[in-house]
Specification:
The complex is a heterodimer of chains A (627) and B (342). Chain A is of the alpha/beta class. Chain A folds into four domains: 231 residues, Pyruvate-ferredoxin oxidoreductase, PFOR, domain III (Pyruvate-ferredoxin Oxidoreductase, domain 3, 3-Layer(aba) Sandwich), CATH 3.40.920; 187 residues, Rossmann fold (3-Layer(aba) Sandwich); 58 residues, no CATH class; 102 residues, 3-Layer(aba) Sandwich (Rossmann fold), CATH 3.40.50.920. Helices cover 37% and strands 21% of the residues of chain A. Chain A has a seven-stranded mixed sheet, with helices on both faces. A six-stranded mixed sheet of chain A has the order 4-5-3-6-7-8, sandwiched between helices. A four-stranded parallel sheet of chain A has the order 20-19-22-23, sandwiched between helices. In chain A, strand 22, helix 20 and strand 23 form a beta-alpha-beta unit. Chain A starts with a strand and ends with a helix. Chain B is of the alpha/beta class and 342 residues long. Chain B has a domain of 211 residues: 3-Layer(aba) Sandwich (Rossmann fold). In chain B, helix 1 packs across helix 6, helix 3 crosses helix 4 and helix 5 runs antiparallel to helix 9. Classes of the chains: A alpha/beta (627), B alpha/beta (342). Strand 18 of chain A pairs parallel with strand 2 of chain B, so a sheet runs across the interface.
Chain lengths: 627, 342
């Protein structure tokens, strides 16, 4: 390391381009909070980052056990960071179970900072190592760089004179470990101190104790021989685009995207929803946006959630519902109603492992088929997918725009990976957001010709005729509609015509969406890796590496899953092989094969885990060999 | 703008679609009285939305010249709730049936009732599935033979009024399809009530369940089998108005007003704001054709309570949040915690 510098205290500082850290502990140890603090500090410092929490599906799984381990993973770097990282460089283990659950994903030679107070007999027994089998002492971690730190003892010592109870003091142990990490990565502690002062502004003693703990941890790094000898690291700011940033998870971003779309369209946002993992935070976030005129309706079930939104949409609100797989299944019939009523509605479906209850907290991309085909009758709906936490904002925004401007329900697909991951978002100015133009039917006088609710414009779109408008009184609903008048019709030719008109309306959206672009690589070549959704980061890195290795590989990421961009077929024809990695058994692949009559190479993973870049890189390498 | 000054009539609320109900169906009468009530209430056609689910009665919106949504089976109430929550100024009516509201839509029914949005719910109860041609419904009688209960119904029937009171209903009434003017007056009271108004309508299906309510409509019997509730008036019924209801402890008993030992002053005085007594009245659910004594079936308004509506409470929260002004798009995008990279 030629560029290693030395501080005036004689400690080496080694620069790194990226680091992946996992904070792991008991679900009561405050790992999410600790990780969040670290992420905020890194963000303010200017590095790029991506975070992902990994928590048990039980609220309070048994303490000390593997199933009770809660983790907060993040990657930060001096260049663009697309994923929370595949393997860790640093593992913070607050107890034995946290080590056991995560050691396999630590790079060889990686750093372990272990709270030795969490490796007593009880913890060893509960973790499954067994009493007397301390992995910190028996060679289990011989291939790694181990720092044994009695965090609880040191925190108690540091806070002995605060007058707080032992219980309250022990709660500060996560701040102590955070302080060590700040020292190790040459990061300032003041962002966290400011946050603590605000967070505990009415509890000065607690604020002081936490600040003391984080400072003590930092000083511990500074003053302890084992750390001093090992040295410190630094990760430079990423040189991100200048501007004001905020950190968002995918769910927060989706919620804000909907609210922003409503403001931009001059409509009120209404969200009818029912709590479901991993989509609940969308409802929670919007419930806090009443200042922006947002109304949320926590319905009695998923069905009432979507139907209340259909009612609100009929009344002229920008209406949305948020859900995940099982909820989407329950909403199917109502979505058919929205299709035949031809009214705007956004469905944000945060995909999770299925079928049935499946893996509620784990991501999967297996709801593409239900989004595309999961309604009875011929009931096409546009589908948009988000590829990153920040993109959840833009995807939700665009879903709202398409739904209002094309008078159709739209499905926006995200997943549990994006929903819980966070990354910095460059805050757009309102003017940068595309305009949203709802077309309301105008009032009519008594002597005007009767209003025709299903009369369409050149895009096949009918007007939005909302109650309270004179002369537009009309009755619509689930029965087949006569063309233009909207009256009930069982006429065979009319049904055929209406089926065609509804399908054409969705197809014509292809005229309004951007053409498919390449994310990386050349316009013609050997391999095109075609992805959609949250596989973006892993594919991005893998293709980047393959290109650097001299292979002819390109990457395109499909955002518009229905209708496809008009040029997609042409693009697919420019490569010898199309590789489609998906966290399902080949759903996009089947749609592509059916539509363009080509045979792409499938690469599927349904383990409740996202792809990592090594897996995709290896697959690309395999294909290269066969060419 | 002369039309705003002209009072609308029932005809103005009549759409250009011909009702497709069978001749003699009770739905015709309900439609007629609804349109008349809307005219009496001086509603404007553009401010009214009629929402329905699926079933014979749920075709009703097509025949009213207002806005209307014919939704999906059992789920008119959530559509209406979402509409009312986002547009509180509209007059929202719901047409539903016993199968629609109480069977497939049972969950929505109890939750809508407890939330109390300002909806006027007309529940047309014919104790049968009509549109699917004669299967038993959740209000069908024990032993009733239908195409799906050839050996007689074994499902215990639902008591709409008791269920609605149990769910926290704030306006609970029952009428008969044949009582045209009475029904219209109850519809108007329902509309004037702020909150979810439930009007159960006993509605005869002449095709699949003809005569289900004959014990209460038969010219000879109805005076003895029914009782009409009037606020502040004693519970009196009978052909000669010579029967009364009084409470013997907690037990309602029928007394003979010709008996010199019975004083009219002892009779139960109907108080539509008395929740406990409304619950007791809801249990006047005897079958006059069964053996033994029976209490008359009550019609009219069982219970009225002045309680906040869902949309008022929600709107109040939004207004409070906006006390310092409505949030701007800039502030929405920025959130609470930002940092700047130069």
């Amino acid at each position: 390391m030629t560029d290693t510098t030395t501080t005036n205290r004689g400690v080496n500082v080694t620069p790194k381009t990226s680091v992946t850290v996992l904070f792991a502990g008991d679900s009561g140890d405050g790992m999410q909070l600790t990780g969040t603090q670290f992420a905020n500090t890194v963000a303010v410092y200017g590095s790029d980052l991506n975070t992902f929490p990994n928590f048990p599906s039980e609220i309070r799984a048994p303490a000390g056990t593997i199933s009770g381990v809660s983790g907060f993973q993040m990657q930060f770097g001096s260049q663009s960071v697309y994923t929370p990282g595949a393997k860790f460089d640093v593992l913070i283990a607050m107890n034995a179970a946290a080590l056991k659950a995560n050691l396999s994903k630590l790079h060889h030679g990686g750093i372990i900072i272990a709270d030795t107070d969490g490796f007593d007999d009880k913890n060893l027994r509960l973790s499954g190592y067994g009493e007397g089998n301390n992995p910190l002492e028996d060679g289990t971690v011989a291939d790694y760089t181990l720092f044994n730190v009695p965090v609880v003892s040191l925190t108690r010592k540091a806070l002995a004179d605060t007058g707080l109870s032992v219980k309250n003091i022990d709660r500060c142990k996560n701040m102590f470990i955070l302080g060590i990490l700040y020292w190790l990565y040459s990061l300032p502690i003041d962002t966290t101190i400011k946050t603590l002062q605000v967070k505990f502004k009415n509890k000065a003693d607690i604020a002081d104790a936490n600040i003391k703990a984080v400072t003590a941890g930092y000083n511990f790094g500074d003053e302890t021989e084992m750390f001093a000898q090992f040295g410190r690291f630094s990760v430079a700011p990423a040189g991100k685009q200048p501007g004001t940033y905020r950190r968002v998870t995918g769910n927060e971003a989706a919620a804000i995207g909907l609210a922003a779309a409503s403001k931009k369209a001059g409509l009120k946002l209404f969200l009818g929803s029912y709590p479901i993992t991993p989509a609940t935070e969308i409802l929670q976030t919007l419930a806090n946006l009443k200042k922006w005129g947002v109304k949320t309706f926590q319905a009695e079930d998923e069905i009432a959630g979507v139907l209340s939104s259909i009612g609100a949409s009929y009344g002229g609100a920008m209406a949305a519902t948020s859900t995940s797989g099982p909820g989407l299944a329950l909403k199917s019939e109502a979505l058919g109603l929205a299709v035949i009523m031809e009214i705007p509605l956004v469905v944000i479906n945060v995909q999770r492992g299925g079928p049935s209850t499946g893996l509620p907290t784990k991501p999967e991309q297996s709801d593409l088929f239900i989004s595309m085909f999961g309604r009875h009758g011929e009931a096409p709906m546009p589908i948009i997918s988000a590829h990153s936490p920040v993109d959840c904002f833009y995807a939700a925004y665009e879903a709202a725009k398409l739904s209002v401007e094309h008078m159709t329900p739209v499905i926006c697909l995200t997943d549990g990976y994006l929903a819980f991951s966070s990354e910095p978002m460059l805050i757009p100015s309102p003017a940068e957001l595309s305009k949203i133009k709802p077309v309301f039917a105008k009032p009519r006088a008594a002597d005007d010709a009767p209003y025709l609710p299903y009369k369409r414009n050149e895009m096949g779109v009918r007007e939005w005729a909302i109650p309270g408008t004179k002369g537009l009184e009309h009755r619509i609903g689930g029965l087949e509609k006569a063309n233009e008048t909207g009256n009930v019709s069982h006429d065979p030719a009319n049904h055929a015509l209406m089926t065609k008109l509804r399908a054409e309306k969705v197809e014509k959206i292809a005229d309004c969406i951007p053409l498919q672009t390449l994310d990386n690589g050349t316009e013609k070549g050997d391999i095109l890796v075609l992805g959609w959704g949250s596989t973006y980061g892993a594919i991005k890195i893998a293709v980047d590496r393959a290109i650097k290795a001299g292979h002819s590989v390109s990457h395109a990421h499909v955002r518009y899953l229905n209708p496809f961009p008009k040029n997609l077929g042409t693009m697919l024809g420019n490569y010898k092989k199309i590789l489609i990695p998906e966290n399902n058994c080949g759903q996009l692949l089947m749609m592509i094969r059916d539509r363009y009559l080509i045979e792409p190479v499938a690469f599927n993973k349904v383990e409740g885990l996202p792809f990592n870049e090594m897996e995709i890189e290896a697959k690309i390498t395999d294909i290269v060999k066969e060419l | 703008m002369t039309d705003t000054l002209t009072k609308l009539t029932a005809k103005d609320f009549t759409s250009n679609q011909e009702p497709k109900w069978c001749a003699g169906c009770g739905d015709h009468a309900v439609l007629q009285q609804l349109k008349s009530a809307m005219a009496d209430l001086e509603l404007k056609t553009e401010d009214v939305v009629v929402v329905s689910g699926i079933g014979c009665s749920s075709r009703l919106p097509y025949y009213v010249a207002t806005y209307g949504v014919h939704g999906i089976h059992g789920r008119a109430l959530p559509v209406a709730s979402g509409l009312k929550a986002s547009r509180p100024e509209l007059s929202v009516w719901v047409a539903t049936g016993d199968g629609d509201a109480l069977s497939i839509g049972g969950n929505h029914y109890i939750h809508t009732i407890r939330r109390n949005p300002d909806l006027n719910v007309l529940l047309l109860n014919n104790e049968i599935y009509g549109l699917t041609k004669g299967q038993y419904s959740p209000t069908s009688k024990i032993g009733q033979r239908t195409v799906t209960s050839p050996n007689g119904v074994v499902d215990y029937p639902m008591n709409t009024i008791a269920l609605t009171l149990g769910a926290g209903g704030t306006f609970v009434a029952r009428v008969m399809d044949r009582d045209g003017k009475f029904m219209r007056e109850i519809f108007k009271r329902a509309a004037e009530h702020r909150g979810t108004s439930l009007v159960e309508i006993y509605q005869n299906c002449p095709i699949f369940n003809d005569g289900a309510f004959t014990p209460f409509t038969d010219r000879e019997r109805k005076a003895d089998t029914t009782i009409y509730l009037e606020h502040g008036k004693p519970l009196i019924f009978g052909k000669e108005n010579d029967k009364g209801i009084k409470l013997d402890g907690f037990t309602p008993v029928v007394v003979d007003l010709n008996d010199p030992k019975v004083s009219r002053d002892d009779l139960w005085i109907h108080d539509e704001n008395d929740f406990i007594k409304a619950n007791m009245l809801s249990r006047f659910f005897d079958d006059p054709d069964a053996e033994g004594d029976y209490l008359p079936r009550p019609f009219g308004i069982f219970y009225v309570e002045d309680r906040f509506t869902y949309e008022d409470a929600l709107t109040a929260q939004v207004e409070k949040a906006q006390e310092g002004g409505e949030g701007t798009l800039e502030a929405l995008l920025a959130g609470n915690s930002t940092w700047t990279i130069k």
